[in-house]
């Protein structure tokens, strides 16, 4: 993704630029563009255009980045790279919620496995006392059965999931 910053002249309405989204995508030969209007903290409008070549981001690169130099952050997870190419990491214990959504094949399962791997690589089992996994589709998480970080085996029955959460 390449982000362009546009500084409109005084008096130019932001909505006028936002309404040009389809025309800008056509002019840039881009499938789709994203307009951030305004960029928080700036008097600029951001126009994000997908790159012609897709760059692969490996979890290893993210976890080996300088942003990961926080040895006491046991729940620091690697999420990817931002538009500037810098590693994006977050401390799960400082997030009240995390919502992952996307279409089929967009990488939700890859993201979940990256989060779990990040935790397993940083924290000893006794430092992750209440890790519970629920996988009603029985597709992704069974590979983690038996790891010492889990409070209980991976729950696959939706009816048992609510019971397991109430118990623990």
Automatic annotation (TrEMBL):
Keywords: ATP-binding, DNA-binding, Nucleotide-binding. This is FtsK domain-containing protein. Transmembrane segments: none annotated. Belongs to the FtsK/SpoIIIE/SftA family. It is a multi-pass membrane protein. It is found in: Membrane. GO terms for cellular component: membrane. Residues 59-166 form the FtsK domain. It comes from Bacillus safensis. PANTHER family: DNA TRANSLOCASE FTSK, SPORULATION PROTEIN RELATED. It comes from the Bacteria.
């Amino acid at each position: 993704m390449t982000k362009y910053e546009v500084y409109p002249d005084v008096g130019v309405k932001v909505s006028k630029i936002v309404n040009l989204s389809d025309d800008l995508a056509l002019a840039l030969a881009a499938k789709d563009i994203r307009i951030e209007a305004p960029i928080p903290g700036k008097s600029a409008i951001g126009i994000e255009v997908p790159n012609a070549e897709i760059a692969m981001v490996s979890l290893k690169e993210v976890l080996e980045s300088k942003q990961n130099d926080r040895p006491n952050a046991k729940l620091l997870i690697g999420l990817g790279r931002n538009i500037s190419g810098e590693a994006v990491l977050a401390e799960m214990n400082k997030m009240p919620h995390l919502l992952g959504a996307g279409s089929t094949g967009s990488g939700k399962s890859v993201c979940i496995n990256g989060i779990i791997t990040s935790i397993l690589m940083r924290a000893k089992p006794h430092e992750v006392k209440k890790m519970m996994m629920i996988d009603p589709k029985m597709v992704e998480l069974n590979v983690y059965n038996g790891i010492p970080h889990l409070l209980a085996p991976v729950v696959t029955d939706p009816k048992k999931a609510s019971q397991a959460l109430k118990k623990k």
